[in-house]
Amino acid sequence: MEQWADETNAEVGMRNAERQGTVQRRSLRLRANPVMMIRVPTSAFRLLSAFWRLNVAEELQYRANFIASVLGTVFNMATALLTLSLFFHHTTTLGGWDYWEIVVLLGVFNALTGVIEAVLRPGIGQLAGEVRSGELDLVLVKPVDAQGFVSFRRIDIWRLTDVVLGFGLAGYALVQLGHTPSLAQLMAFGLTIAAAAVVVYAIWVVLMSLAFWFVSVENIAVLFDAVYEGARYPVSAYPGALRFLFVYLIPIAWTTTIPASALTGRLRPEIGLAAAVVAALAFGLARALWRTALRRYAGASG
Question: Taking a C-beta distance cutoff of 8 angstroms, is the pair 295, 135 a contact?
């Protein structure tokens, strides 16, 4: 019995020595090759920041994209202004808005389009393809909120020029109107434009979540583009049925008409508060749908 115990203790000692030697060898290899010592960010912000730095570094290698982006935006804005001018050859108002007031709205529309093209389309806009291919598995294993990571993992910095040009156009139109927004109007605009960004984001989440049910659907983002074109003009310019649709069912009226109303002095305080409520409801519904959709996801093996 004592001999068996001695042999057992010897075997345990040998295994412990082997494990210690393995740990020491690994430690030596790590010290010899410090590149292998990578600290993985555990917080969502640190992980997204790492991805954003990589995106920016990648985009800076193609600076000609900046010129192409600016030229494309200027062309689109010029086309929109030309179309608007054709409208106003036959009328003095459109939905109760005059020419320069609608130019303010077009500026807001262009700024939000910049947010879509710079952040949402490169990020969550790729979700449908990842659901089909099973690449979403790589996101779900990360120690971050999947919706937040999928939504904001990439950024196209050159498309942020759309935001600057859009606000510049809105400012120029205000000068032509002879209207200087008060501090209260600017604060209302800040609230409503933030609410507008949340509503746009929520619509994107809802549309992209459809990929979990309709895996074979291609170019889901085209649905958004088709509907969002209606936000180029004030909601009051549309017939009653479309107005109801754009205010209550597909709330694009809250994305451009309301912020532009704040800048031009048209906005009533209760409508500004309602915009914040609509944004909160839209985000909550989008979040609930996202969680429901994830439960249906079977992964690459499904």
Answer: no
